[in-house]
Amino acid sequence: MMFSRRAEQIEAGQPSTLVHVPLWATVEAHIRSEGTYLPSFYLFLVIAGLIGSVGIMTNSQILIVAAMVVGPEYGAITSVALGIDRGNRRRVRDGLRALTLGFLLAIVVTLGFARAGAGRTPAVQSL
C-alpha cells in the first residue's frame, strides 16, 4: 500500500534487495567471528562489571556508560540471535553459556572486591 504515486515511482526505481546480499553476508561473517569466546571476553566482562558496580555505588552515570562501552556481551547476544534465526543450536548454546559464565564470574569478582573494601568507607563531602 503506497501513500502516493510518487512513492510508488521511487520504490519502482530502487534496486532489488539482492543488491544488499553481500552486505548481509559481511554482517553475518562478522557476527560469526564474534561468536568465539576467548579469555579476553571474560576479562572484559569482569572489568565492565567492576566499573559498573563502582558507577552504581558512586552514582556516576559516566562510569555506567563506560561499563557499557567496555562490556563485550553485545557480540555474544547477536551470536545467540543469529543462532536462533539460523536454527544453529550449538551457536545458541555456546553464546548462552558464555554469557551465563561471564556474568556469574563478573558478579563473583565484584562481590569479592566489595567485601574486600567493606571496612573502608570513602570520605563523603557535603555541600
Commentary on this structure:
The protein is mainly alpha-helical and 127 residues long. It has a domain at 34-108. 74% of the residues lie in helices and 0% in strands. It is built from six helices and no strands. The protein has helices spanning 5-13, 21-33, 39-58, 61-70, 73-86, 89-116. Helix 3 (39-58) packs antiparallel against helix 4 (61-70). The longest helix is centred in the last third of the chain and has 28 residues, at 89-116.
Question: Short summary of the structure?
Answer:
The protein has 127 residues and is mainly alpha-helical. 74% of the residues lie in helices and 0% in strands. The longest helix has 28 residues, at 89-116.
Short key terms for the protein model shown above:
127 residues; mainly alpha
Amount of helix: over 70%
Low-confidence stretches: none
SS-derived structural category: mainly alpha
Largest sheet: none
What best-fitting shape do the alpha-carbon axes yield? elongated
Mean pLDDT: 82
Total number of strands: 0
Count of runs of 4 or more consecutive helical residues: 6
Order of helices and strands: HHHHHH
Give the distance, in angstroms, between the N- and C-terminal Cα atoms. Answer: 61 Å
Task: Report the β-strand fraction as a percent range.
Answer: under 5%
Radius of gyration over all CA atoms, rounded:
22 Å
Give the helices and strands, then pairings.
Blueprint: H1 5-13, H2 21-33, H3 39-58, H4 61-70, H5 73-86, H6 89-116
